[in-house]
Amino acid sequence: LAELERSGETLDAWLGRAGYSALFRDAYLLPQAAAIWSCTLEQMRDYPAAAFVRFYMNHNLLAYDLRPTWRTVDGGAKQYISHLTRPLQGRVVTGARIDSVGRGPVGPFLRMADGSMQDYDAVVLATHSDQALRLLDQPTDQERALLGAIAYRPNRAVLHRDVALMPRRRKAWAAWTHMGRSDRAGEGGVTYWMNELQSLPGEPLFVSLNPAREPDPALVLGEWDYEHPVFDQAAVAAQDHLWSLQGVGGVWFAGAWFGSGFHEDGLQAGLAVAEQLGGARRPWTVANESGRIRLGAADLARAA
Ligand SMILES: Cc1cc2nc3c(=O)[nH]c(=O)nc-3n(C[C@H](O)[C@H](O)[C@H](O)COP(=O)(O)OP(=O)(O)OC[C@H]3O[C@@H](n4cnc5c(N)ncnc54)[C@H](O)[C@@H]3O)c2cc1C
User: Fold this and answer.
1) Are 254 and 124 in contact (CB under 8 A)?
2) Which of 18, 47, 71 is the endpoint of a domain?
3) What average pLDDT does the chain have?
4) Which residue segment(s) compose the domain that 25 sits in?
């Protein structure tokens, strides 16, 4: 891993140099990784090898027979959201569109979509990196460089019941299935089998991300456009310095783009910001509590 950190090479370059076969790369590793990061195989090839290996090590993905036991929240994320927000009833405003964030002589302020202005002691932009950059009235050069280095790309999710996007052999159905075409290397998308993932009874229900072939329109229940961060080498290099942006003129940043783009990354970034901002501590202890994101050395000392 240390060698990969030093060389900074891409996943594709490393797989080639280390002698992995094209079949292992194209039919196993890249589809698996592309499904995890919700991106194309081509984009996965450009992923920095060191960040890839670190992620696979942290998630026990290098050991074929050591699958982690996943734990889920009964009733889904809305259960803990309502639990967390209950004590804040009446003090939290949701669904308010913000046009921009400025920094005045006494602190930051928000310009709302309805034209009103609101002053605050601090502002935490828990948006995507590109949205945060667009929201800032007068971004600093460092904000432009670091936030601008972590781009987002669109991803289309289709909810449907079309079994044609799953393997013909029912025995081969899995919670995540990659479908690609051998004549179009690099393309393809993942289909989530929602009945399996969320213990849903009844007819088959799938979510396909950027489907390689369109599901039968008669079996489509809905579709949505999402965005995912692109973790190329520039983005991963920028992450090393992201924490230096915190608190400048009372503006802070959090989001899954501080880590690998998953819920846990957003949670760790949000907790670290809240603790540094408010001096409070999370009411639990886990080893390496900010291990998925990179805090600057100065900030770590401040948080201690
Ligand atoms: C199809 C799909 C499957 C996924 N599967 C998984 C998975 O299995 N496991 C996992 O860990 N992660 C998964 N993810 C990723 C996960 O959803 C993200 O990591 C997480 O939601 C990102 O959190 P975030 O807080 O960084 O950003 P978001 O949740 O996107 O929050 C950003 C917020 O900023 C708000 N905002 C933006 N601009 C403004 C504005 N101008 N004014 C006011 N508000 C604004 C938005 O409304 C939004 O609420 C998946 C994502 C997708 C799309």
Assistant:
1) yes
2) 71
3) 90
4) 1-71
